[in-house]
Specification:
The protein contains 17 helices and six strands. Strands 1-2 form a two-stranded antiparallel sheet. Strands 3-4 form a two-stranded antiparallel ribbon. A two-stranded antiparallel ribbon has the order 5-6.
Length: 604
C-alpha cells in the first residue's frame, strides 16, 4: 500500500513522488532514492547518526594517539610510524602531528559529532514523529542539510592527507596562527580546507535549523498545542533558534579569516613580524575581533550541544521513572532562560585578553546567572527520580549518568566564571576537565541515552542489554577517572596543549597521573568499539521489536507502525488530547497523548 495519496492529502508542503512503505520495495524506489538521496526525515536522521559515529571513532582515535604522547613522552612505538608515516618518525609523534591531532580532535567532536550528530539525528528523527507531522516542512532542504554536512566531512577528512598536514592552531583557530600561512606548516593548505569545511558545515546547520523551527511552529497535529509538546521538542526548538542566530556570526568570522589569508586584508592582523620573512605590511586589524566573533557562537554552541541532550534526558527519565516530569513549565522556562543567557556570556572566554575589568565583572554576573536555570533543571530531574518506580534500562542509566556529569562538570564552571580565578586557571587542564565533563562527555551520554531509547523505533530491533550495561559502567567510571584528576593538574598551573610536560620540574609530580589517564582513555575507547559492534550487529541481527510501544510511553512516535513508511502514519494523523507525561495517574500506568480526557479524571 502506497502512502502517496495520504502524503499529498495531509501535507501541502510535500513534494514527494511515490515513496512507498519502508518495508515494501516498489519498482520506482531505487536504492539511491531510498538510502542515498532520501527525503524521508527518518532516513536522513540515520545518515546523520552513522556519519556522526564515523567521526566519533576518528576523533576518539586521535585523542588516544595524543594521550599516548602525554602519558609516555619518552617511549617509542615503532607501529606508530607504520600508521602515521613521517608524522611519527622513529615511532614518536612529532610536535606538528601532536598539534594537528589536538586541533582536529576538538573540531570534529564539537561540530561534527556533538552538533551535527546529536541535533541532526534526533531533531530529524523525533520532530515530525512527536509533533504529528508527515515529514519536515521542507524535505528537500532537509536532504541538502545532510549533504552539506557530508561535503564538510569530506573536505575536513581530505585536510588530514595534504602534504603540510591538517590545521594545527587549536580548534578555536585564533589568528595570527590561523591567519598567516607562514606561521607553521599546519597553517598552510590544511587551514584553508578547515575553513571551507567549517563554512559548509555552517550552511548545513542553518538549513537544518530553519527546517526544525518551521516544522515545530507550523506542522503540529490537531490538539498539539505548544504546551503539550514533549520536552525533547522544546529543547530541539531552542537549539535550532540558537543555531540560526549564532552560526552566521561564526560564518562571517571565517569569511574574514579567508580574506586575511588569501586576499591581503587586515581584519585580524596588525604590526606582525615573522621570522625569516620580516615585518608584514598588515596594520589596523585586531586578533581580539576574531575572538569576539568566534565566542559569540562558541558559547551558544555549548548549549546547542547540551540542550538536545537535556530534552531527551527529561523524556527518558519520565518514561522510565513511570512518573510525570516534575515542573514541566519550569523546565520550558529554564530552557528559554538558558537560550537567552547563552548569548550574553561569550566574553567569559576572554577574561585574559585585556578586557576592561568592569566589563569583565558584568560578564561574571551573567555567567553565574546561567547556573540558576541549570540548577532548576537538575532539581527537576532529581525530583522526577524521587520515589519513582525506576526501570534501569540502558537508556535510563545513560540519562542518570548525564545528570551526574552535568552536576559535577557544571560546578567547576562556577570557578571558571569568576574572572579573578579564571586568570589563574585560563588555558590550564582545569578548563579541559570542566568542559569535557559538562559538554563533551555529558552530551555523549545524552546521545547514547537517545540511541538506546529510540533504537527500537529507528530500526525495529533491540540492542543487546548486556553489552549496553558494560558500555555504560566502563564509560562513566572511565570518564571520571580521565577528567577528574585534570582539575588538580590545572590547579597546579599545568597548561593545556603542551607537547611534553616531563621536562618541567614543577609538573614531574604528574608523570604517573598522566600515564594513568592515558591508560584509562584507551580502555574507554575500546568500550566505545563494543557499542559500535552492538549497534551494527543489532541493526541486522538484533531481537525484533514486536510491540508497538516497547517502553509504554505516551508520545506520538509510538503510535506509528513498527516500521513506519514515508509519511509516518498510514491513515489519519492521530489527534492529541493531553500533555505527554500522564504516568502513574488515576491508577493507570500510562495514558498516551491520543487518549481523550475523561470527565472523572484528576487534574495533573
Amino acid at each position: 500500500m502506497s502512502n502517496e495519496a495520504v502524503l499529498h492529502a495531509h501535507s501541502g508542503a510535500s513534494t514527494h513522488e511515490g515513496h512507498g512503505d519502508h518495508h515494501e520495495h516498489h519498482h520506482h524506489e531505487t536504492f539511491i532514492s531510498k538510502y542515498v538521496f532520501s527525503q524521508d526525515h527518518k532516513m536522513i536522521a540515520k545518515q546523520f547518526l552513522i556519519t556522526g559515529m564515523v567521526w566519533a571513532v576518528l576523533g576518539g582515535l586521535m585523542s588516544v594517539l595524543f594521550r599516548l604522547q602525554l602519558g609516555y613522552p619518552d617511549a617509542t612505538f615503532p607501529w606508530l610510524e607504520d600508521i602515521l608515516g613521517k608524522w611519527a618518525k622513529g615511532g614518536h609523534i612529532t610536535p606538528e602531528a601532536y598539534y594537528a591531532l589536538v586541533t582536529t580532535h576538538g573540531t570534529v567532536l564539537v561540530f561534527f559529532v556533538l552538533t551535527a550528530g546529536l541535533s541532526g539525528t534526533f531533531a530529524n528523527f523525533l520532530i515530525p514523529l512527536q509533533v504529528g507531522a508527515r515529514d519536515m516542512a521542507s524535505p528537500f532542504m532537509n536532504m541538502l542539510s545532510y549533504w552539506f554536512f557530508f561535503a564538510a566531512s569530506i573536505v575536513m577528512l581530505s585536510s588530514i592527507f595534504v602534504e603540510t598536514g591538517p590545521f594545527s592552531g587549536g580548534w578555536t583557530a585564533y589568528p595570527p596562527l590561523s591567519a598567516l600561512g607562514d606561521a607553521s606548516p599546519g597553517s598552510k593548505t590544511g587551514m584553508d580546507l578547515w575553513l571551507v569545511s567549517m563554512a559548509l558545515f555552517v550552511v548545513s546547520s542553518l538549513l537544518g535549523g530553519l527546517n526544525y523551527i518551521a516544522t515545530i511552529l507550523n506542522m503540529r497535529t490537531k490538539g498539539m498545542s505548544m504546551t503539550r509538546l514533549p520536552l525533547t521538542i522544546w529543547a530541539l526548538f531552542f537549539t535550532a533558534v540558537l543555531g540560526v542566530l549564532s552560526f552566521p556570526v561564526l560564518f562571517s568570522g571565517f569569511i574574514l579569516l579567508i580574506f586575511d589569508r588569501n586576499f591581503g586584508t587586515s581584519f585580524y592582523l596588525s604590526d606582525i613580524f615573522v621570522n625569516g620573512v620580516g615585518a608584514l605590511p598588515n596594520e589596523g586589524g585586531s586578533a581580539i575581533l576574531y575572538q569576539h566573533l568566534f565566542w559569540f557562537l562558541g558559547h551558544p554552541e555549548v548549549y546547542i550541544i547540551l540542550l538536545p541532550a537535556m530534552g531527551m534526558v527529561s523524556e527518558i527519565m519520565s518514561v522510565n521513572a513511570r512518573k510525570p516530569i516534575f515542573g514541566y513549565m519550569a523546565m520550558i522556562g529554564s530552557l528559554f532562560a538558558i537560550a537567552i543567557l547563552a548569548f550574553l556570556v561569550w566574553a567569559h572566554h576572554m577574561f585574559v585578553t585585556g578586557l576592561n575589568p568592569f566589563l569583565g565583572s558584568v560578564f561574571v554576573l551573567l555567567t553565574l546567572l546561567i547556573a540558576v536555570p541549570s540548577a532548576i533543571k537538575v532539581f527537576n530531574w532529581l525530583t522526577t527520580l524521587w520515589r519513582g518506580n525506576i526501570r534501569f534500562t540502558p537508556g535510563m542509566l545513560f540519562a542518570i549518568g548525564f545528570v551526574s556529569l552535568f552536576i559535577s562538570g557544571g560546578l567547576t564552571g562556577i570557578w571558571l566564571g569568576n574572572s579573578a580565578l579564571d586568570i589563574h586557571l585560563h588555558d590550564t587542564y582545569f578548563v579541559i576537565a570542566h568542559f569535557h565533563i559538562v559538554m563533551g562527555v555529558a552530551s555523549m551520554f545524552g546521545m547514547f541515552a537517545g540511541i538506546y531509547h529510540w533504537f527500537p523505533k529507528m530500526y525495529g530491533k533491540y540492542l543487546n542489554n548486556t553489552m549496553a550495561y558494560i558500555h555504560f559502567w566502563v564509560t562513566i567510571a572511565g570518564a571520571y577517572m580521565i577528567f577528574w584528576p585534570m582539575h588538580y593538574e590545572g590547579l597546579a598551573g599545568m597548561p593545556r596543549r603542551y607537547y611534553d610536560y616531563s621536562i618541567w620540574e614543577s609538573f614531574k609530580q604528574f608523570v604517573e597521573l598522566n600515564r594513568f589517564i592515558s591508560t584509562v582513555a584507551m580502555i574507554v575507547f575500546a568500550v566505545q568499539l563494543l557499542f559500535l559492534f552492538n549497534f551494527f550487529y543489532s541493526v541486522f541481527k538484533g531481537r525484533k521489536v514486536t510491540s508497538l510501544n516497547p517502553w509504554n510511553s505516551n508520545t506520538l512516535e509510538w503510535t506509528t507502525p513498527l516500521r513506519p513508511g514515508h509519511g509516518n502514519w498510514p491513515g489519519e494523523i492521530p489527534e492529541v488530547h493531553r500533555w505527554p507525561y500522564d504516568y502513574g495517574k488515576d491508577g493507570q500506568d500510562f495514558i498516551p497523548q491520543t487518549t481523550p480526557v475523561g470527565e472523572d479524571e484528576s487534574h495533573h
